[in-house]
Amino acid sequence: MQLELSPEDAAFREEMRTFFTTRIPQEIRDTVAQRRELTKDQIVESQRILNEHGLAVPNWPVEWGGRDWSQLRRHIWHEEMQRACVPLPLAFNASMVGPVIAAFGSQELKERFLPKTASLEIWWSQGFSEPDAGSDLASVRTTAVRDGADYVVNGQKTWTTLGQYGDWIFCLVRTDPEAKKQRGISFLLIDMTSPGVTVRPIELIDGGHEVNEVWFEDVRVPAENLVGELNAGWDYAKFLLGNERVGVAPVGSTKRVLAQAKEYAGDQLQDPLTAARFAELENELLALELTALRVTASSADGKPHPASSVLKLRGTELQQAVSELVVDLAGPASLASGAGDESDLLGWARRATPIYLNLRKASIYGGSNEIQRRIIAKTILGL
Amino acid sequence: MDFTYDEEQRALREAVRGLVGKAYADFENRRRTVAEDPGFAEDLWGRLSEMGVLGLPFSEEDGGMGAGPIEVGIVATELGRVLAPEPFLTSVVLAGGLVAAAGSAEQRTDVLGALASGESVLAFAHAEPGARWMPTASAVTATDNGSSWSLSGVKEPVPHGARADRLVVSATLLDGSSTGSGRPGTGLFLVDPAADGVTRHGYTTHDGGRAARIAFDAAPAAPLGEAGQDRTPEIARALDAARIAACNEAIGAMQFSLEATTAYLKSRKQFGVTLNAFQALNFRAADLYVSLELATSVAAWATMVLAEKSGDEVSDAAARAGLQVSRAGRHIGQEAIQLHGGIGMTAEYSIGNYTSHLTALDHLLGDGDHYLRVLSKSVGGHEEFDPLA
């Protein structure tokens, strides 16, 4: 057992910290720090800079821009980015479709997509969930029927986050309606400018437009856009969801928001009850961070440790709890979410409730927290 | 940063697990042992001594093994797993730790040598009626009689105070050196419990442990180390180290509790099916796993802080581990009984006894709210807490 980072890892941490705080434009980092919404251009610019310095997709294979880092270094990279208020590389590209194409795609698909996926020249959307396929993802009904050199796709995807910016969408489609439901699914890449693709916004309880419905009507997709083998898409989806779980616990950014909340709190920190809430959350976050370090260190050959479900489950609960604390600190000012900048109330207080409401999603996406409990009960406890 | 044990540490774990497992894997043995005084197995205590466990944290010149907090944590975890009633935590880690920290060279060789060899059981008489987890004493006072010292007042509860062959006692120094703030300091003394002026009344605690009321009436006492010194800092540090060891012991007890509970859910049948057919129960077990994983991480981290850092950083880590482990211990202890149902209420079955012991560990040195109070006072003083700094 060893508490301290090795001198090499400590130097690596310093290098990351310096890079993130000096090379990413201050305005982008301020937007994140103030919990304001990033524009598409800001997200793209940030990822482009990271990618130019080999810091966008370190978990990919080295030949496609990955870095042969230890799990600990990946963790440090991820945490330091959040600490420095740098937008994380777009998850759909960096943690979801990229690793799938790199692991299962043909050489041609790799060459065609991976460089532009890393640089965010292609903005990917995720086409997994459907109105009747949420937690029960293998129930997808969107069909892809072979017709000559193409697949013809029909159906509806939903909860497509930032689909309004999407250039391409990676979809789970049913290619064998006769097979057992997991065995008839394929993983297909679809150009969102294809005729027959329609993106419609879904308004959420925070008033924002973050997610969409995506409709497919007789969309023709060249057969070479199939990733890996026909009807093996469920395996790729499981691979993807396992990766998603690992990065989904936002320890660094939740710690940062809690630290900011101390500033928001001002004199309220003198109140013992408020101080105790801070102290307890800070301790829970410490436990989560240490668990992330312990779990990363023990995950072999890049496969997610089964305990990564703990990180997703507890990480999102704490993210939500901190956002709830901020609303409570704002008090009556938290009602003024619709006030503009002429308001006498502070910006953080006006934004507090929409963020709190928005983050209710965190325990639902990425495999709902009930799905994580199922994974823990089944695969870890053997129940 | 590395959370894994090295080869020697794994060997220590296996050796201790083998020894205490043989003694207590059958819970009936533990029940028999705690039913009679002194509440632990003297022969097992002797074998732990032969293994070097009773001198583990002490330097070799004091008769110990020269090991550190990681090894102490390993032993505590293994004792916790089987609910071993031997007083490793209170006698070796806490009372022995104070002698190591404050004793003269002669006292260290004498007292720690006897402790490590299993010849004598040591107890720390510190808690006083009305006081809550302070590093100071007030109800027991020390008087300087010129060439000798004497103590008066009552200590209670003193873990294993009735069986102890020698006592380390904290007492307020009415005539001695004061703390920086001008209040009388707290001294540490060695007391022979057989001496005139010492009256002991021992009893059983709810978890099968032993404690005592010890009254001192001008009882002769030998200052630990230099006479008349305020030992509050040494006491605080020893309590921090003991708290971290207690967290490890609690982790062991929680590991067993969760294993036993999942095994029970898989075997107990109601409505014609095993209980794990009910998702409501499985989800609660999953939440116990989450609590245990998180508490394990903080306890392991605090153990490393104790091994590598000092002073305020250790106190802070002990408080953080104390809070997390207290919360987890209550969650797991309470739910383990509930998921077992009625059988969990019986003294004969192990699981409820684990909850009882977790409750005792929680209140021996400071509970979760106690540490939350401590942490709340300093929470505004830093921006964020960085365990890698």
Please explain how this structure is put together.
The complex is a heterodimer of chains A (383) and B (389). The mean pLDDT of chain A is 94. Chain A has helices at 7-23, 26-33, 40-52, 71-83, 91-104, 107-119, 233-247, 251-265, 272-298, 308-330, 347-358, 369-380; strands at 124-127, 143-147, 150-157, 168-174, 185-191, 197-203, 209-222, 226-227. In chain A, helix 5 (91-104) packs across helix 7 (233-247). In chain A, a hairpin with a 5-residue loop joins strand 6 (197-203) and strand 7. In chain A, the strands form two sheets. Chain A has a four-stranded mixed sheet. With 383 residues, chain A is of the alpha+beta class. Chain A has three domains: 7-89, no CATH class; 124-231, Butyryl-CoA Dehydrogenase, subunit A, domain 2, CATH 2.40.110.10; 248-380, Butyryl-CoA Dehydrogenase, subunit A, domain 3 (Up-down Bundle), CATH 1.20.140. Chain B has 389 residues and is α+β, with helices and mostly antiparallel strands. Chain B has three domains: 7-120, Butyryl-Coa Dehydrogenase, subunit A, domain 1; 123-230, Butyryl-CoA Dehydrogenase, subunit A, domain 2, CATH 2.40.110; 233-381, Butyryl-CoA Dehydrogenase, subunit A, domain 3 (Up-down Bundle), CATH 1.20.140.10. Chain B has eleven helices and nine strands. Chain B has helices at 7-24, 27-35, 42-50, 69-82, 88-102, 105-116, 232-267, 279-308, 312-340, 350-364, 368-378, and strands at 122-125, 141-144, 149-159, 166-173, 186-191, 198-204, 210-223, 269-270, 273-274. Chain B has a five-stranded mixed β-barrel with strand order 2-3-7-5-4. In chain B, strands 8-9 form a two-stranded antiparallel sheet. In chain B, a hairpin with a 4-residue loop joins strand 2 and strand 3 (149-159). In chain B, helix 5 (88-102) packs antiparallel against helix 6, helix 7 (232-267) packs parallel to helix 9 and helix 7 (232-267) runs antiparallel to helix 10 (350-364). Chain B is globular, with a radius of gyration of 21 Å. The model of chain B has no long low-confidence stretch (mean pLDDT 96). The chains are: A alpha+beta (383), B alpha+beta (389). The interface between A and B is large, with 50 and 50 residues.
